[in-house]
Amino acid sequence: MVTRQVLEITALVGLAAAIHFGLRRLGHRLPIVIARRRGIRRAPTWVRSLPLVLQIAKAALWIAAAWGVTQQLAGIRAVRDDAVATASSFLAEPLLLLADHCYSSLELLELPAYLLGAWLGVRVGTALFKRHVLAAAGVERGIQEAVTMLLRYTLIAASTFIILRSFGVDVSSLAVAAGVLGVGIGFGLQNIANNFVSGLLVNLERPVQIGDFIRVGEWTGTVERIGPRCIEIRTLDRVSILVPNAKFLETEVVNWSHGDPTTRVHVPVGVAYGSDVRLVRRALLEAAKGHPDVLSEPRPEVDLNAFGPSSLDFELQVWIRTPRKQDNVRSDLFFRVEASLRRHGIEIPFPQRELHLRSPKLERIVDALASRWAPEALGNGESADAPAASTSFAAEDEDDVPGETWSDVRLEALAERIRSDDGVEICDRRHLLTVYRDCFVGREAVDWLATNLRLSRDEAVELGQRLVDKGFVHHVLGEHGFEDGRLFYQFTGGAPPLSSTRQSRTEPPHPARSRSAARFARGGL
Fold first, then answer.
1. Helix (H), strand (E) at residue 254
2. Of 453, 521, 459, 520, which is closest to residue 490 (Cα–Cα)?
3. Are residues 337 and 476 in the same domain?
4. CA 26 to CA 13: how far, in whole Å?
5. Are residues 463 and 403 in the same domain?
6. Domains of the chain: total
7. In a domain, 243, yes or no
8. Other C-beta atoms within 10 Å of 499: how many?
9. Are residues 215 and 293 in the same domain?
10. 78 lies in a domain?
11. Are both 64 and 120 inside the same structural domain?
């Protein structure tokens, strides 16, 4: 006997688990199957409410399974019956007195359940009416939505009144309370009421219908659904935007699909001044002629809109029948226009601007430089302190980079500054058996130029090379230009080298030794 009860309980629980698994799979697969069969992206509205129905079914399933399990066990069955009897007597007791009628707890629980059932039944019934009656009759999609929504609200209101009357509620006695409550709702929920009324007007006037391509505010897309509170718009990026219904009555709405869907696309084009305008017009019309979405009637047009700052501004105007493709068509036409203009040799100009700088300080600096370096100030009649003036000018223009602005006079002043006490170190330097008199190292000169004139090392080398080219500085053997290395350089008019400290000053250098010195004296130490 016990074994039989265990088997029955196990079979009952297993059956409940199998049904639960089946309901779960049904909730996952049914919306997908329905969407595929209808060829749509999403399942209908009534299918999207399926998860709630399945949850209720699962709860009822396990309640029934628990009831069946307790039915097999005598001790637990007695406790269950006592609990049910106690709960029933508690729920049957009068709880609320309203209009000479006592309502129990059970009736107060049954009322919202009946209202919920009526609401679900009305939604399913109107959905079936829309699908099997209105759609089968060939009614337009916008009219289907309007009729369905009005019928749904009417049936919900009628079923609510019927359920309340069946529970003994005098609906006429609630008129005053409903009026007071309506005033409070009007102030507290005025936005919701505004959107609801706006939705009714939109459905009655039908300025916007499902499937229309519209722009409202900053959003552009296709109308997917017109609800009681908002309208769903799917943009070109496939993003769903919920726009309140009141916005469609308070702001401007562009509806390209309303009436005639034919739309004109504008393509602005700028060409260089001096281009043949007739050739430009022909090139633009050729670009629009072969596009598959461009209509031949009305015919494409080309307008010369303006003489722009740097271009002749044309506009290509074409007509298409699919408004939602206007961005793609405009992009394709830009590609075609660019290729057509290039094929005809027509230039697309760059923007050009003329910049005039007005600065009193800058003008004073330019005047001072012009007066200082005027030709009469640089003649042979200059005073003995002219090099000092040149040196001071070089110090004032330390920010100058090497280039054509360094005249011979300025280069001479720079050479004098380099060999001054504040310049580079000039002394006798030895390499192998030869001593070079009054010379400096190229790397040290580059360091001095970079530090005092705030130049880069490449700019300093370039400036030193200009000194070599002009004859102010030379390599000790004349074999190298100015380099950033350990090479010896002398100023023009420097002392000749000594071949050796042990050799007499009057004795001529040995030829072989001179060649050795010339071969190894590359300036390295």
1. strand 253-255
2. 521
3. no
4. 20
5. yes
6. 4
7. yes
8. 20
9. no
10. yes
11. yes
Per-residue pLDDT of the chain (525 residues; tens, 9 = 90+): 567 777 877 888 888 889 989 888 888 777 777 777 766 666 566 566 678 788 888 888 888 888 888 877 777 878 887 787 887 777 777 666 665 667 677 777 788 888 888 888 888 888 888 888 888 887 777 677 778 878 888 888 888 888 877 777 666 655 655 665 666 666 656 777 777 778 777 777 778 888 888 888 888 888 888 877 888 888 888 888 888 888 888 888 888 877 777 888 999 999 998 899 999 999 999 998 888 889 888 899 999 999 988 889 999 999 988 888 888 899 999 999 999 999 999 988 877 676 666 666 666 777 777 766 655 544 544 444 444 434 443 444 444 444 446 788 888 888 888 888 888 888 888 877 788 888 899 899 999 988 888 888 888 888 888 888 888 898 888 888 898 888 889 888 655 555 444 343 334 444 433 333 333 333 433
Q: Decide if 214 contacts 257 (C-beta within 8 A).
A: yes
Q: Are residue 7 and residue 126 in the same domain, yes or no?
A: yes
Q: Are 230 and 120 members of one domain?
A: no
> Which residue reads 């129990």 in tokens?
104
User: Are 33 and 163 in a shared domain?
Assistant: yes
Per the structure, the complete domain to which residue 224 belongs is given by 198-255
Sequence-separated (6 or more) residues with CB below 8 Å from residue 126: 148, 151, 152, 155
- What's the token pair of residue 178? 């409903």
* Residue 186: inside a domain: no
We report the CATH number of the domain holding residue 229 as 2.30.30.60
Q: Helix/strand/coil (H, E, C) string of 116-184? A: HHHHHHHHHHHHHHHHHHHCCCCCCHHHHHHHHHHHHHHHHHHHHHHHHHHCCCCHHHHHHHHHHHHHH
373 part of a folded domain: no
Residues 297 and 219 in one domain: no
Which of 125, 5, 113, 136 minimizes the C-alpha distance to 60?
113
